[in-house]
Every structure is written in structure tokens, then in C-alpha cells.
Design goal:
Length: 143
């Protein structure tokens, strides 16, 4: 009987497995082997102590106990004490345990819809054009 839960693990990659290529899933995954390529799922991804991902990871939740050489994008990201992440992390909730190694940037995921996040920036007011020989400083605003 299959449960319909994002936390349910449906895919396991064993310690001896090496996968070259992108992995795209709907359910959860445990990676104990090596993945050379991006990993994307609507569920949870767990990279165990023996697991390595050489690519970007995108998931609802990501727990890293091994090594990730790439960006991690998830609502909840957990870096375990033995983890090593070389890439940027985009998150809504982040937990880094003592001993974890992280090299990159952390960015809080925007809660704005994509069309608002890329809205154009308004231009500053126009500066009056030069009127010949008169030299006047640019207008300054003060309170």
C-alpha cells in the first residue's frame, strides 16, 4: 500500500551505485551512493554520510549528511555534523549542526510570487538639463 506523503521515501540509491545524469522524482529519496547530475523532487531528499551529489538539488526538504558540490534549494534544509556543501543554499528554514562544512551563500527564499519578484524598478526623478553658463548644484532633498 502506497502512502501519498511528501516525506515518504520511494527511491533509494545504494552506497555502491553511481548515477550519471539528472534525477527527477515526485516522492522522497535517500542517496547513499554518488549522483553526478541535478536532483529534483517534490518530496524529501536525504544525502547520507556516504552519499555524494555533484549537481544542484531542489526539493521540498533536503537533509545533507554527506557531500554536495552544487546549490541546494529547499523549503527546509538541514546540514548534519559530517556534511560538506560547496554551493549556495536557498531556503525558508535552515539548520546547520556543529561540525558541518559549508562554503557558499545563504539566501532566504522569497515568499513573493515570481511575477512580483521580477517587477521593474522605478527610475529616479529626471535631473534638470544644463542651461548654458549657469552652474547650479543638483537639487538635494532634506527634511
Amino acid at each position: 500500500m502506497k502512502k501519498n506523503s511528501q516525506k515518504h521515501v520511494e527511491t533509494m540509491i545504494g552506497e555502491d551505485a553511481v548515477i550519471n545524469g539528472e534525477i527527477s522524482l515526485k516522492g522522497g529519496a535517500i542517496i547513499s551512493g554518488k549522483v553526478v547530475g541535478n536532483v529534483q523532487t517534490e518530496g524529501t531528499v536525504r544525502v547520507t554520510r556516504t552519499g555524494t551529489v555533484e549537481g544542484d538539488m531542489k526539493a521540498a526538504e533536503a537533509t545533507v549528511g554527506g557531500i554536495v558540490h552544487g546549490n541546494v534549494n529547499a523549503d527546509k534544509v538541514v546540514l548534519r555534523s559530517d556534511s560538506k556543501v560547496h554551493g549556495d543554499i536557498i531556503y525558508k528554514q535552515l539548520m546547520i549542526e556543529e561540525g558541518a562544512s559549508f562554503e557558499g551563500r545563504c539566501d532566504l527564499a522569497s515568499s513573493k510570487p515570481a511575477d512580483q519578484a521580477t517587477a521593474p524598478v522605478e527610475s529616479p526623478p529626471a535631473v534638470p538639463e544644463d542651461r548654458g553658463g549657469e552652474s547650479s548644484p543638483p537639487p538635494y532633498y532634506s527634511n
